[in-house]
Design a protein that fits this description.
It is a single chain. With 270 residues, the protein is α/β, with parallel strands linked by helices. It has a 6-stranded mixed beta sheet with strand order 6-7-8-3-9-10, with helices on both faces. A 4-stranded antiparallel beta sheet has the order 2-1-4-5, with helices on one face. The protein is globular and about 75 Å long. It has helices at residues 41-48, 72-78, 95-106, 110-123, 139-151, 169-184, 219-223, 226-231, 238-245, 254-269; strands at 2-9, 18-25, 30-35, 56-61, 64-65, 79-82, 157-161, 188-192, 204-209, 212-217. A hairpin with a 2-residue loop joins strand 9 (204-209) and strand 10 (212-217). The protein has a single domain (2-235), classed as P-loop containing nucleotide triphosphate hydrolases (Rossmann fold). The structure holds adenosine-5'-diphosphate (ADP) and magnesium ion (MG). Residues 41-42, 161 line the site of magnesium ion. Adenosine-5'-diphosphate (ADP) binds at residues 11-12, 17, 35, 37-43.
């Protein structure tokens, strides 16, 4: 779905926001991208749907180099991007109108538009909200509306740039449940997050620091790399931190951790 080769990008003549990043994301995979503030996560996201073009290196989307898309709208349709602030992405005066916006830009016929709006609002759990003013929606509902807008374009991939960061735990959980369902249906997902506990849902995780790709692996491998994460100014989630202390690096299985703690206690009381 995405092949990134030696991607380098600097906004000004100054420091590189991305520095020699190479990464391959296969169709249907769910990736988490981790990194401290300013590590280059959003810059990477913007390269995946042509909002930015590489200064050095290459980015391929669906087998085609981004520069070769004659119509950037085609690339934006193929790769939906959802941002952090739910309020900044709503353009319609009603839920329905908001989803319709992108479709109108594509010139999708009225009947087809109706069909798709009904379909995607059902998919994100907003059926029955068609006429509602988006302003009355909760944060989680707003993000699901933003996802519906992207889904209406029939994308092959969805990029979420800290899309749960401004949500309460319930709203974030709603979005993650939806992502799990979309992943099950075969959509490629790239989820940028600060929240280490969200990483467990992904197939793979990439860690950025100072514009460089420091690590790629399964969530378990990432959580087993406590030292590296600390160097990248990231903290292990509590279970993984406990696993590290108990000599079970990367372990997130609470039963296994409890067994290790019990063994420790038995050892002390024996
Ligand atoms: P992250 O999303 O991980 O917080 P960004 O990709 O936003 O990181 O930023 C990477 C680097 O690029 C940072 O040093 C940031 O200050 C800089 N940067 C980001 N956006 C811009 C911009 N529009 N203009 C100039 N510098 C920017
Ligand atoms: Mg960012």
């Amino acid at each position: 779905m995405f092949r990134i080769e030696n991607l380098t990008f600097a906004y000004n003549a100054g420091r590189r926001a991305l520095d020699g990043v190479s990464l391959e994301i296969r169709p249907g995979e769910w990736w988490a991208v981790l990194g401290a503030n300013g590590s280059g996560k959003s810059t990477l996201a913007r390269h995946l749907n042509g909002l930015l073009l590489p200064q050095e290196g290459r980015v391929y989307v669906a087998g085609r180099e981004v520069r070769e898309y004659d119509d950037m709208r085609e690339l934006r349709r193929l790769v939906g991007l959802v941002f952090q602030n739910p309020d900044n992405q709503i353009v319609g005066n009603s839920v329905e109108e908001d989803v319709a916006f992108g479709l109108e830009n594509l010139g999708v016929p009225r009947e087809e538009m109706r069909r798709r709006i009904t379909e995607v609002l059902g998919e994100v759990g907003l059926a029955g909200w068609e006429q509602a003013d988006p302003a009355v929606l909760s944060g989680g509902q707003k993000q699901r509306l933003a996802i519906a807008g992207a889904l209406a374009m029939r994308p092959q991939a969805l990029i979420l740039d800290e899309a749960t960061a401004m949500l309460d735990p319930a709203g974030a959980a709603e979005v993650l449940r939806l992502l799990a369902e979309l992943h099950r249906q075969g959509l490629t997902i790239v989820m940028i997050t600060h929240n280490m506990s969200e990483v467990t849902a992904a197939d793979k995780a990439a860690v950025l620091a100072g514009g460089r790709l420091e690590f790629c692996g399964t969530p378990q491998e990432v959580f087993g790399a406590g030292e590296l994460l600390r160097r990248c100014h990231l903290e292990l989630p509590p279970a993984a931190a406990l696993g590290e202390m108990l000599g079970l690096p990367g372990c997130m299985d609470l039963d296994a951790l409890l067994a290790a703690l019990t063994a420790l206690k038995d050892g002390e009381t024996a």
